[in-house]
Design a protein that fits this description.
The protein is mainly alpha-helical. It has helices spanning about 15-35, 45-55, 60-85, 95-110, 120-135, 150-165, 170-200, 205-220, and strands at about 140, 140-145. Helices cover about 70% and strands about 0% of the residues. Strands 1-2 form a two-stranded antiparallel ribbon. Helix 1 packs antiparallel against helix 8, helix 3 packs antiparallel against helix 4 (about 95-110) and helix 6 (about 150-165) runs antiparallel to helix 7 (about 170-200).
């Protein structure tokens, strides 16, 4: 199956791959919040706020509850960089495909973990999310995040403002792309919250399926670099 390559020449930067990854990002956040003790897998700003509140309230267990995913997120960023570095000079597999394969394995394991292991489930989900957001940072030449919305919202409004102020209507296309990314994330989060009512802890496996779809799209149309 042939796909139109994005500006970068890499399928990993295409809209085709962005769609399942962004849906998965929204689902991961909804899953960790509704099923895993009200912790955000992706929105570390919220975790830091809640961690600080617990710290100043002298709630050590509550502080650790939110500190662990923050630390796991930081470690995930470093791990993605190490994976990329280890693939330099190798051409059999794109390093981003390795990241997605690792994500699928980690999140599949999360689905088996009981509520008593929420601390570990949240840490692994945040670690996985960080690898994803560090590895997939652009779509058709525009920077974006598949696991959070604040940067996409800022960029979208920036392009929309430029279109209005400069009367450069070509900017509307880019602004619309950011709007689509935010809607996809919201759809993933909303759908994920509904699925938790039927699938419970196993809802995260839907995210695994979406990530696998993204990986398969890359295999079909990417060049390993």
């Amino acid at each position: 199956m042939a796909f139109q390559q994005p500006q970068s020449g890499q399928m990993s930067d295409s809209v085709f791959v962005m769609i399942p990854l962004t849906l998965s990002g929204g689902l991961q956040d909804a899953y960790s919040y509704f099923m895993r003790d009200r912790v955000f897998a992706n929105a570390q700003t919220g975790n830091i706020v809640l961690m600080s509140h617990a710290l100043f309230s002298r709630d050590l267990s509550g502080c650790l509850r939110y500190l662990l995913p923050v630390l796991a997120f930081a470690l995930g960023i470093m791990t993605a960089n190490f994976i990329r570095s280890s693939h330099l000079g190798h051409s059999k597999m794109h390093w981003r495909q390795t990241v997605l394969a690792a994500e699928v394995l980690l999140l599949a394991a999360v689905g088996f973990m009981p509520a008593e292991w929420n601390w570990l489930a949240n840490a692994l989900t945040s670690f996985s999310c960080a690898m994803q957001v560090q590895s997939f940072r652009s779509v058709d030449g525009s920077s974006y995040a598949s696991t959070m919305c604040i940067g996409n919202l800022r960029s979208g409004m920036d392009y929309l403002s430029a279109a209005i102020l400069d009367r450069d209507w070509s900017q509307l296309r880019v602004a619309g792309r950011y709007g689509m990314i935010i809607l996809l994330f919201a759809f993933g989060a909303g759908g994920g919250s509904l699925l938790t009512q039927y699938m419970g802890m196993e809802t995260i496996w839907v995210s695994c399926g979406l990530l696998m779809a993204g990986c398969l799209l890359m295999v079909a149309g990417d060049n390993p670099k």
